[in-house]
Each structure stands twice: as C-alpha cells, then as structure tokens.
Amino acid sequence: MGKTQLAVAYTKQHRTDYSASIWINATDETTLKQSFYRAAQRISRQYQSVLYIKNAVANKDLNETLEALVVYDNYDNVRFDRRNGIASSTRPGTAGSWSNPGNTLSGSAVSKAYDIRSYLPETDHGTVIITTRSATVKLGKRIPLGKLRDVNDSLAILTSTSNRNNLVEDPDATTLTRRLNGLPLALATARAYLDQVATSYKEYLEIYEKAYIELKDNTWVFHALGNLYSDQGRLKEAEAMYERALQGKEKALGPDHTSTLSTVNNLGIFYSDQGRLKEAEAITASYLY
Question: How far apart are CA 123 and CA 131, in angstroms?
Fold first, then answer.
C-alpha cells in the first residue's frame, strides 16, 4: 500500500545524501536485468573511461560507490531456499486499492519467482531498499506499511494535487476518505481522477459505490464457474475463473475476508489436485502469513 510511492519520496528527499541512486524494477528477473542494463548505460555515458569504470568495480570503497542507494521495487514473486528458513511466496494482484486493475493472479506468476539475493550488492556499505507485498521476505530491517489511520492524512493526499482546498470542511470529502479506508493507492487514484474532471466528492463516491457493488455482485459467478469447470475437467478455464474471482474479491472485500480466503483455498486445492504443489503452497502462504 503505497510502498513504491514511499520509496520514491525517500529517494527524492535524500538524493543529496547518496553518491548515486539506482532504481531497479524487480518484478521478475527479466525486468531486473533490463534495469541493470539501463543503469549501466547511464553510467557509461557519464563516465566514458573504461579504465575508470574497471577501477570502480575493482575498488568498491571509492567515494562514488561508498554511499550508493539501490531500490529494488516490486519484488513480489519471491523464491527463497527453504533451507534458509524462508518459504516461497507469490502475491500478484494484491488488494489494498481500487487501482491497478491489470494486476491479476496467474499460474505463470509462480514461474516468475526468483531469489533476489544473488542480485544484491556484495559490499557492506551503502543502502538497499526492497519493496514487496510478501511477508516472507526477511532481509534486513522490515518496515511494514498499513492503512492511514488519521482521516487528516487521507485528506492531505486528496489535497496534494487536486487543487481543492478546505477539504476538512467538506463532509463529502471526509466521507470519501473513510470509504476508501485509508488506502494510499485508492486515495491517490481518486486524487488523480478528481484532478482531471469537474466532479464533486459526492459524485465520485457514487461512482465508486456503483462500481464496488457491481464487482462484489459478480465475483461469486466467477467462483461458481471455476467450480463447474473444475468438475468438468476444463482446468484452464477453471483456473482463469478462480483468478478473476480472487482478483474481484480482493478489491471488493479485502484479502482477509472469509470469501476471499475461500477462493484462495479453492485455488490451492485446484493446484494441489494437479500436482502443482509449489504453486499450491505459494498461493496459500501468501495469504496466510
């Protein structure tokens, strides 16, 4: 919930405290390697001397590398060796906001899981930040993020770029922030929408409620179709329906709701019945821990 935005804000606020800041898209190994490649390109443009770069690699205590900041963003497809006491976990399509409709759960997510530790700096200086939705990542100091508990903090997000002032005095704005339940991404999405259109907070809340009801009313259909297709042996269709049901329930009800967990359980059993034990373990662990 707002983990990427928080990392961005930290990087901007402390940019003068570090000799360099490198942002890595850690969604999967492909995006991670692409990020490293782009970073290397920028470094080579700034320091065109091959000898200088070789010296920096060989002497890792140079001032230019001593206090570097590296951010690994969206490391959600996690795979750690159990011998190290950490289980695997994948958690795409998490709840926590009305935004990110493209984040869907799929079996392919498990195949994207990887161990990030081989990509971490080998030096014992500098700063590394890893943003993740998985509670199984236990590297360094953990800072769990939660909802905004103070309504004034939620109102501050709505005010930041929406060019609307005196929100504390607007009862509809307060009602909207409470309905969005202190979720930073949901608040940021509302702020971005309200910044583009001449819609009141009351009208936005009505739009939100209508969409919420439609989503909530339709998710049971996907779950039922998943059961039906599974019974018929139409496994590919069944998996797709379970995934859509899970995505909808997370958004409408939250990840801890009994209905959401029921779909998680069904999906876990579905994987287990096919012998896909790692995927069954991963989907179950990501919601229970």
Answer: 20
Measured CA to CA in angstroms, residue 181 lies from 18, 117, 164, 254 at distances of: 35, 35, 20, 11
What is the C-alpha separation between 25 and 35, in angstroms, rounded? Answer: 6
Q: How far apart are CA 113 and CA 90, in angstroms?
A: 7
For residues 115 and 80, is the Cβ–Cβ distance under 8 A? Answer: yes
Q: Which amino acid, residue 278?
A: K
Q: What is the pLDDT of residues 56-76, one digit of tens each?
A: 666 655 555 568 899 999 898
Do residues 15 and 21 touch, judged by C-beta distance below 8 A?
Answer: yes
Residue 26 belongs to a domain: yes
- Residue 61 domain-assigned (yes or no): yes
Is residue 268 a contact partner of residue 229, using CB atoms and an 8 Å limit? no
Residues 110/90, Cβ–Cβ less than 8 Å: yes
Q: CB under 8 Å to 24, separation ≥6 — which residues?
A: 32, 35, 36, 39, 70, 71, 72, 73, 119
Give residue 35's domain range: 3-130
C-alpha 258/C-alpha 82 separation (Å) is 29
In a domain, 29, yes or no: yes
**Cα-based distances in Å from 264 to 72, 76, 95, 219, 230:** 28, 17, 13, 13, 15
Q: Tell me which amino acid residue 250 is.
A: E
What is the per-residue pLDDT across 3-36, written as a single tens digit (0 to 9) for each? 888 898 899 999 889 888 999 999 889 999 999 9
**pLDDT recorded at residue 56:** 64
Contact 132, 114 (CB under 8 A): no
**Structural domains counted in the chain:** 1
User: Do 69 and 11 meet the contact criterion of CB atoms below 8 Å apart?
Assistant: yes
